[in-house]
């Protein structure tokens, strides 16, 4: 039977079972990486339903991604039946709260069909506010201003409160941006007038609704007997306050999370929310899910030894009952280009030796800019890859054009949608006409669309949009979008371009129209297919939800560590493990920042099932300059018993520009093993044991700031050369083919080194 409690508890370990069955009062489930938290959450909801402790509509389950919500709902349906699971209130914070905001939109002064700005819409709107206030957008950079406003909203600071916040104004003034408050005020005013909310407004306005309307708050809170929250460590202050209010009467709130994976402080996440849960609910029950079902014992042990250095954490000791696994491999490279080539080579070797597929590999890095050299190396070896970037499809210009038509038809007052399409395709509406419209809108304090009604030249466009808007409430969305594509002329405009790029743009527009049809197919039977609901569905797509195109591809995954959260791969390469890169900020970072960076590295390690390879480079090009930084402190914090070889002592030869082979590091073997290798011999032996010299204990300094290297073609074996850091030396050997020539150089002070000439910056000694 679907309600069989024994079936629901089947396969759970003792701690998981206890967490599932404790359904009354506040519950904190501390779930380590790979410990089965999704299983516990879904089984817990199924258990509540099986025990008939609540109806499905009385359970509120909140997640951070639509993908997570969808998978959980499917699992619950398999346990209790689709007819019961469908009535659960389950989804992302934003998708659930927006339903309440539409229901009570009158209380907030918004139209029920308000639209939602995505990030690019918000940036564009901020840019127009900056222009209207006659400010310099090089000082007031739109993305930076939006980030500040976002932080304010996530901390429940409205534009009026911001204007009265002396500390905030002082910080802005010190940063030479004293008009942030004015931009925030104008932006909020324009959003309200346009009948739109941005992503952060959904949480802000939900709080305002619950704060200022006791009747609405009581009515919403009374709907739910049980509240469950996934990834609680990622909640911000706004989400925290909403949850407190919704659970105020019964305290039946269960939160699941891992403080060791709290990595979104830059988005406003507050690790204190999970650390202080016991203070908020002193009567709470705490369960620790410590068995990792994902990774080898070596990976789990290494992650434990790393995260133990954090002081702000909830006590837990994760363990794995799986195989011991191979030790974590360290790869040392001279440059980021060589690092990338070694990573690519490591992937090829594992493909050959283990039978793995491309999709089994992920290369993680701290910053997006690091992907360039890795992409080049993978292309050279014909290794297919994709760069994980969330829902990039909806960021494509032609898709945004058509989406702007959809938005303006649903909400005529959407200024950003109006700006984007009023002259697309071209209708002879130039800047002079648009300036006149903008002046009318500012003078009369109305939307651009209403202002355009007073300008005869734009009347045909206005009439077209109004005629389509009249159909929005009655016409099925599938039919309506086809009508919009045809009447607007946009589809014909793209179809007329028969170039390769034009065909691609047309295909993207057609795919957008297909997505409306797919949305219609996914609706419950009898549920109307309205364009405004489709737009809401798209607007709430989380940046952490992978697209179907990427998800189904057999390719190597490249992504930042932040993007990797929640994912897993058999083999993980973590690139760029150097101070000032990972952790970023280096010595200037605060202790709390360093702890967050350490948690980020913990997340990177625990994405792996079978193998982890960590790489770092002696030199790296950053901001147009070569930088040299020591290996990351985080690598040194991993217990050496989990590494394939120990790191050189700090300040010793391996720290900066030491001989890579003299250090005993064989860089060609990520995950550094071969089943046939003898364990009696060192696995990372130097290639030339007789020629190795220990490098100087002193880190090399730049010798000549005006150093000009000689052309690669001029170098020959037997020449004396100079390096801008290592000084003088003798080329003893040159191997390889142009332009990938490698020189063996015996430096007077720093010993023997193998150097790629195209990266080395050498000059013939004068």
What does this structure look like?
The protein is α/β, with parallel strands linked by helices and 766 residues long. Helix content is 43%, strand content 13%. It has 34 helices and 21 strands. Helix 18 runs antiparallel to helix 32. The protein is globular. The relative contact order is 0.10. Mean pLDDT is 86; it is low at 546-551 and 652-699.
Number of helices: 34
Number of strands: 21
Strand content: 5-15%
Average pLDDT across residues? 86
Round the Cα radius of gyration to an integer and report it: 29 Å
Order of strands across the widest beta sheet? Answer: 3-2-6-7-1-8
Approximate shape: globular
How far apart lie the N and C ends?
88 Å
Give the proportion of residues in helices.
40-55%
* Structure class: alpha/beta
The main pleated sheet reads as: 6 strands, parallel
Low-confidence stretches: 546-551, 652-699
């Amino acid at each position: 039977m679907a309600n069989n409690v024994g079936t629901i508890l089947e396969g759970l370990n003792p701690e998981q079972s206890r967490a599932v069955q404790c359904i009354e009062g506040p519950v904190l489930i501390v779930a380590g990486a790979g410990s089965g938290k999704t299983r516990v959450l879904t089984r817990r909801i199924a258990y509540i339903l099986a025990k008939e402790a609540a109806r499905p509509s009385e359970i509120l389950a909140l997640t951070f991604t639509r993908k997570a919500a969808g998978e959980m709902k499917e699992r619950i349906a398999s346990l209790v039946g689709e007819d019961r699971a469908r009535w659960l209130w389950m989804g992302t914070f934003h998708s659930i709260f927006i339903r309440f905001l539409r229901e009570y939109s009158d209380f907030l002064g918004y139209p029920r069909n308000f639209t939602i700005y995505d990030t690019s819409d918000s940036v564009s709107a901020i840019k127009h506010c900056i222009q209207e206030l006659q400010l310099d957008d090089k000082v007031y950079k739109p993305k930076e201003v939006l980030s500040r406003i976002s932080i304010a909203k996530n901390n429940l600071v409205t534009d009026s409160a911001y204007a009265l916040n002396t500390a905030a104004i002082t910080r802005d003034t010190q940063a030479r941006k004293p008009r942030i408050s004015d931009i925030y005020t104008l932006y909020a005013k324009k959003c309200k007038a346009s009948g739109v909310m941005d992503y952060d407004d959904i949480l802000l306005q939900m709080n305002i609704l619950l704060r200022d309307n006791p009747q609405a708050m009581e009515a919403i809170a009374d709907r739910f007997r049980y509240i469950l929250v996934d990834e609680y460590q990622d909640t911000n202050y706004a989400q925290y306050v909403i949850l407190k209010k919704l659970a105020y009467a019964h305290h039946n709130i269960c939160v699941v999370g891992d403080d060791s994976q709290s990595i979104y402080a830059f988005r406003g996440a507050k690790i204190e929310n999970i650390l202080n849960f016991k203070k908020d609910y002193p009567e709470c029950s705490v369960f620790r899910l410590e068995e990792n079902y994902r990774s080898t014992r070596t990976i789990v042990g290494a992650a434990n030894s790393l995260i133990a250095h954090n002081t702000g954490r909830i006590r837990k000791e994760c363990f794995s009952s799986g195989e011991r696994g191979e030790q974590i491999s360290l790869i040392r490279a001279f440059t980021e280009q060589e690092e990338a080539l070694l990573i690519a080579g490591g992937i090829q070797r594992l493909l050959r030796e283990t039978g793995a597929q491309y999709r089994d590999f992920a290369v993680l890095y701290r910053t997006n800019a690091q992907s360039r050299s890795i992409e080049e190396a993978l292309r050279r070896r014909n290794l297919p890859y994709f760069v994980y970037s969330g829902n990039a499809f909806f960021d494509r210009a032609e898709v945004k054009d058509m989406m702007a038509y959809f938005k303006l038809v649903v909400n005529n007052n959407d200024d950003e949608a109006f700006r984007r399409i009023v002259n697309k395709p071209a209708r002879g509406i130039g800047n002079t006409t648009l300036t006149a419209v903008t002046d009318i809108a500012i003078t009369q304090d109305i939307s651009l669309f209403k202002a355009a009604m007073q300008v005869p030249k734009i009347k045909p466009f206005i009439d077209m949009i109004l005629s389509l808007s009249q159909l929005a409430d009655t016409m099925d969305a599938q039919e309506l979008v086809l009508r919009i594509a045809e009447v607007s002329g946009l589809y014909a405009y793209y179809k007329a371009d028969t170039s390769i790029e034009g065909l691609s743009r047309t295909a993207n527009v057609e795919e957008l129209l297909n997505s409306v049809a797919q949305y219609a197919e996914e609706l419950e039977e009898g549920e109307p297919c309205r364009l405004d609901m489709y737009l809401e569905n798209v607007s709430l797509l989380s940046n952490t939800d992978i697209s179907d195109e990427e998800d189904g591809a057999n390719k190597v995954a490249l992504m930042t560590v932040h993007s990797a959260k929640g994912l897993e791969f058999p083999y993980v390469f973590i690139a760029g493990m150097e101070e000032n890169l990972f952790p970023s900020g280096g010595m200037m970072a605060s202790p709390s920042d360093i702890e967050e960076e350490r948690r980020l590295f913990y997340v990177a390690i625990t994405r792996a099932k079978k193998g982890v390879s960590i790489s770092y480079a002696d030199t790296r090009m950053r901001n147009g300059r070569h930088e040299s930084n020591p290996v990351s402190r985080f690598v040194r914090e991993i217990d050496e018993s989990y590494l394939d070889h120990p790191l050189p002592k700090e300040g010793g030869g391996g720290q900066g520009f030491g001989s890579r082979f003299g250090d005993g590091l064989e860089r060609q073997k990520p995950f550094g093993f071969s089943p046939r290798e003898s364990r009696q011999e060192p696995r990372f032996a130097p290639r030339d044991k007789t020629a190795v010299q220990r490098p100087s204990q002193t880190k090399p300094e730049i010798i000549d700031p005006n150093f000009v290297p000689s052309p690669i073609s001029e170098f020959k074996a037997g020449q004396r050369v100079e390096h801008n850091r290592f000084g003088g030396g003798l080329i003893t050997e040159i191997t390889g083919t142009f332009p990938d020539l490698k020189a063996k150089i015996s430096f007077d002070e720093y010993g023997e080194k193998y150097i790629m000439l195209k990266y080395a910056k050498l000059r013939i000694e004068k």
